[in-house]
Amino acid sequence: MMTVQAATVKSRSWKRRLPLHLMLVPGIVLLIMFHYIPMAGIVIAFQNFIPAKGFFDSKWVGWENFELMLQMPGIGQVLWNTIYIAFLKIIFGQIAPIAAALLLNEVRKSFIKRSVQTLIYLPHFLSWVILGGILIDILSPSHGLLNEVLGWFGMKPLFFLGNDKLFPYVLVVTDVWKEFGFGTIVYLAALTSINPTLYEAAVMDGAGRWKQTVHVTLPGMLPIIVLLATLGLGGVLNAGFDQVFNLYNPLVYRTGDILDTFVYRLGLIDAQYAVATAVGLFKSVVSLIFVGASYWLAYRLAGYRIF
Amino acid sequence: MDIHISLGRKIFLVCNNIVLIALAVVCLLPLINILAISFSSSSAATAGAVKLWPVDFTLSSYKYALSKPEFLQSLLVSIERVVLGTFISLAVVIISAYPLSKERTEFPMRTFYVWFFFVTILFSGGLIPTYMVIRNYHMLDTIWALVLPGAVAVFNIVLLLNFFRGTPKEIQEAALVDGCTHWKLLWKIMVPISMPALATILLFTCVGQWNSWFDGLIYMNSPTNYPLQTYLQTLVVSTELFTAAGNLTAEDMKALAEVSDRTTKASQIFLAALPVLVLYPFLQKYFMKGIVLGSVKG
Q1: Which intervals hold domain ABC transmembrane type-1 (chain A) (predicted)?
Q2: Phi/psi of residue A163, each to 5°?
Q3: Is A40 helix (H, G, I), strand (E, B) or coil?
Q4: Residue of B nearest to A109 (CA)
């Protein structure tokens, strides 16, 4: 009697859960098709891959492609560019929105506050193709707007996108310019969640606006700053393919080429599938370690869990 | 509160407003510049006389852009991918987020599924294997190569499942006890009460589809299948600087900077940005809520 009942309950709950499994089918099929099967395609990094033969008949070569990768001239430079550019972006990409959020928080006129917000979010929603087109024009050495302005101060025109010393910083500045406004959203939300009584207490203790910012506001924002900084570390090999691809040119390959653009040119332009996949795999593995570590750190430092 | 405002504070507030307005202007200026160029005559634009206001106002560059078959063709491809891509992606995100939002007691397989989805964020096959696989599916030169690979947007699923979990449990339980199916519960109750989160995801999916260009560049062999952003990419970005490889003389540099069809490019850039510019102020209040929900969730 009992067992029959237990069995029906069990079968009922199985029946009740069946729709939940079914709902996941489309997502799982798509992920297998477009994410898990490509992961299996990584085998070509260990093969002397010939497209006509496919990866079942191409010859296995072990680590040869990775050795080739290490011997490539300039690969060290590419790796360095990637880390350097990404690292600068992480630092300034944090500072700028924090500063903007603090300044916005001081504005009392809601009209100004809202208009400024609306405008600084704007670049985030435009693609790097559009911004690339605009920036190439604005940064042009002969009649670009920026060089025009620099001319007022008696400066000679700079070839921003053709000068390999300037180029990495152009990347950092334009990236910060595109994303800082959007980054303020989270910090502004963090600001509103700070307990107002802390400010009252600080005022009672004779703290001015500046002291309140240093002793109440910043500590109040610290958890979210730590969280976003740690999560940002996971992207230290992602220096921004879209941006670099749309702004760089052979003149600045030396300092502007990053792993992703390198893989693109090596793989899809030069058709060096196997070596390009090896470089890509190297990047994926290192990224996996960094992203894993950053999630772990975010959990330890800020109690963050993604789900 | 601010009855006694000190002089220092007043000065700070004025400076602060000026700095912030300057920042906002810096974000807007490049767009105004490109807009001014697009409305100027080509001779004025080539001479570099256009700053923030059109010189010799004319609509000819827009007429030219809109009469170009390549432009209209790619516009159609873009519209198709936005509609199809947003619909498919949103549907998959909604039906995936619902089961994944269940507690482990109610849906024991949940943990396994969550990891199955999450792993794809951590690790990927990379550019070349993904390209090969899509080629093997014979999806090159079809709209499916633009729409399907990114349809399962795991970050959006996470955002939505966290939102689902934040809704009152009692509603779901009551509905299920009353004999409501999961399917009905999802569409009749969960989706309607999740509108703020769904509006955010809708906005990001639309903008993402509209702005994508790289997949078009690698998966479309024939330029007639390019979406608008890919077409723009090949038109605006790659041509001038890339052809000038090697040693640049002063003359080359001048030629590089003075593109003859500067105004046409400007008008096409602006047209490609226009839908986003028009839409986003209206959706701003939604995405602000949604972002905060997604990233600083309690």
Answers
A1: 79-294
A2: -110, 115
A3: helix
A4: B17
Nearest Cβ partner for B20 among A107, A137, A177: A107
User: For residues B43 and B49, what is the distance between their CA atoms, to the nearest angstrom?
Assistant: 9
Average pLDDT over residues B167-194: 89
Helix (H, G, I), strand (E, B) or coil at A60: strand
Q: State which residue of chain B sits closest to A306, comparing Cα positions.
A: B158
What is the rounded end-to-end Cα distance, in angstroms, of chain B? Answer: 30
Contacts of A41 in chain B (CB under 8 A): 125, 128-130, 132-133
Structural tokens at position B145: 């190569």
Average pLDDT over residues A210-222: 89
Q: Note the pLDDT tens digit of each residue in B252-273.
A: 555 444 444 688 888 889 999 9
Q: What are residue A60's phi and psi, to 5 degrees?
A: -80, 135
pLDDT tens-digit readout, B129-178: 999 999 999 999 999 999 999 999 999 999 999 889 888 888 888 888 88
Q: Is A162 on the interface with B (CB under 8 A)?
A: yes
Q: What is the pLDDT of residues A273-283, one digit of tens each?
A: 999 999 999 99
Mean pLDDT for the stretch of residues A108-127: 90
A28 has a chain B CB within 8 A of its CB: yes
Tokens describing residue B127: 């550019």
Which residues from chain B sit within 8 angstroms of residue A33, using beta carbons? 133, 137, 148
Put simply, the chain B residues between 93 and 152 with a CB less than 8 A from any chain A CB are 95-96, 98-100, 102, 106-107, 109, 113-114, 116-118, 120-134, 137, 148-149, 151-152
